[in-house]
Automatic annotation (TrEMBL):
Residues 235-448 form the Histidine kinase domain. It is found in: Membrane. It comes from Lysobacter hankyongensis. This is histidine kinase. The keyword Cytoplasm does not apply. Residues 175-227 form the HAMP domain. Keywords: ATP-binding, Kinase, Membrane, Nucleotide-binding, Phosphoprotein, Transferase, Transmembrane, Transmembrane helix, Two-component regulatory system. It catalyses: ATP + protein L-histidine = ADP + protein N-phospho-L-histidine. SUPFAM superfamilies: ATPase domain of HSP90 chaperone/DNA topoisomerase II/histidine kinase, Homodimeric domain of signal transducing histidine kinase. PROSITE patterns: HAMP, HIS_KIN. GO terms for molecular function: ATP binding.
């Protein structure tokens, strides 16, 4: 049973929320801008109505005041009288509308004014006729707000009703747009553990194709890794049979020996077989860890001469047995990036191969120099060497060459080659010392990326 992931979220819900939030934010901004613009235009329009009404009163004020018919003055068509009208002459209130107060709406100054009268805010236009009549036409500010709010409400309601429909449409549309992801998830879920075939991407949207390409690249690398492991396990199982069979045979000889000398020789063969199997197992584990990425180039720069001296000390028994001469031409201050573990394995395999396959008195020379932004490490010997036609094969696993005398497993140079790949370097092989033996040149850059 699949457990729900903590902290998981719905992409559809996020897209819907983000889209609706954007729509609402834009709508609110547009509404605010419309409100400001409508308020300005409404004020201009209603101010014009005030001025027009005042002009009509001035025109009629030149006649008999009793003949002025206020009910015929223009209004805004509402079901209540919005305009308040006053005609003043000689400081006395003459004709006025029913909703006008008994006091002047505004000071007797020609023009527009915003005032408060009887606790009500008014927008008033004041003018004076040639006969000396003062005409004041006012409108409550609340009436203007009511008109504006009513207009905005008529605009807002359709938008508010449209938001749920928009959300439903987005929910369905986003769901259909994300259906390719669901199909990919189902295709991945239906796979068997070792199925590394690429996922089909022909009908996938452009936004999903980069994900599919990276998944397919991962499947390809996984398939290659699985195939390498299969070959490795097959080769390793084959190689391990030989020393096990040899140990068993020597043990049987020791068990049936007729004298002590024969038993000692058989037990010596058992010990030699155990040593060989120990070395083979160590090489197999090293190669497996390299392939799995457990061993990498981490660890920073190290002094190469110290690493080389440590390796020669580890191989001291073989050096004395072979009466070998090992020359280290490595500057003491030369530092190399790559990590002590990898460099130690690399040198131990190269020097160990020279000792294992060389004759008594074999010479091994280790040289290292700086070359630009890289270190060139050169290991040469005067042993039997490897023919030029077989050198590429020597880098493959479990390749024992006719010239290699010593019963190795054919993993030494394969491990070296893999380490060089991890360090991002280059490996070339040539002749050894004095035109004999084998020479292995390694170029390791200062800044390298692991090659997996």
């Amino acid at each position: 049973m699949t457990r729900p992931m903590t902290g998981a979220f719905s992409l559809r819900a996020r897209l819907l929320a983000a889209t609706l939030a954007t729509v609402v934010a834009v709508w609110l901004a547009a509404t605010l801008a419309s409100y400001v613009q409508a308020r300005r235009e409404l004020d201009e329009l209603l101010d014009a109505h005030l001025a027009t009404s005042a002009a009509l009163l001035v025109a009629q004020a030149s006649e008999e005041l009793e003949e002025i018919e206020l009910e015929h003055l223009p209004d805004l068509g509402d079901d209540h009288q919005r305009l308040a009208l006053q005609v003043w002459h000689g400081g006395e209130l003459g004709v006025h509308s029913a909703n006008a107060p008994d006091t002047p709406l505004a000071p007797f100054r020609q023009g527009f004014a915003n005032v408060r009268a009887s606790g009500v805010g008014w927008r008033v236009y004041v003018t004076r006729s040639r006969e000396g009549f003062w005409v004041q036409v006012g409108e409550p500010e609340s009436a203007r707000r009511d008109i504006l709010h009513e207009a905005l409400a008529r605009q807002a309601w359709p938008m508010l009703l449209a938001l749920p429909l928009l959300g439903l449409g987005l929910w369905i549309g986003v769901g259909r747009g994300l259906s390719p992801l669901q199909r990919i998830a189902q295709a991945v879920d239906a796979r068997v553990p070792l199925d590394t075939a690429p996922l089909p991407s022909d009908d996938a949207p452009h936004e999903i194709r980069p994900l599919l390409e990276r998944l397919n690249a991962l499947f390809a690398r996984t398939g290659e890794s699985i195939e390498r492991e299969r070959r490795f396990i097959g080769d390793a199982s084959h190689e391990l049979r030989t020393p096990v069979a040899a140990i068993r045979a020597q043990a049987q000889v020791a068990q049936g020996a007729r004298d002590e000398d024969e038993r000692r020789r058989a037990l010596a063969g058992v010990i030699a077989g155990c040593d060989r199997m120990s070395g083979l197992t160590e090489q197999l584990l090293t190669l497996s860890r390299l392939e799995a990425g457990v061993l990498d180039s981490a660890g920073g720069s190290v002094h190469l001469r110290e690493i080389a001296e440590d390796v020669v000390a580890e191989l001291a028994t073989d050096v004395r047995r072979m009466q070998a001469r090992i020359v280290l031409d490595v500057p003491g201050d030369l530092r190399i990036e790559g990590g002590a573990v990898l460099l130690r394995i690399l040198l131990r395999n190269l020097i160990g191969n020279a000792l294992r396959h060389g004759a008594e008195g074999v010479r091994v020379q280790v040289t290292a120099v700086r070359d630009g932004a890289a270190t060139v490490l050169d290991i040469r010997d005067d042993g039997p060497g490897i023919p030029a036609s077989r050198r590429a094969d020597a880098l493959e696993r479990f390749q024992r060459l006719d010239a290699a005398q010593g019963g190795g497993a054919g993993l030494g140079l394969a491990i070296v080659n893999r380490i060089v790949q991890v360090l991002g370097g280059e490996l070339t092989m040539g002749d050894g010392l004095d035109g004999r033996g084998l020479g292995v040149a390694l170029r390791i850059p200062d800044y390298h990326g692991a090659s997996r």
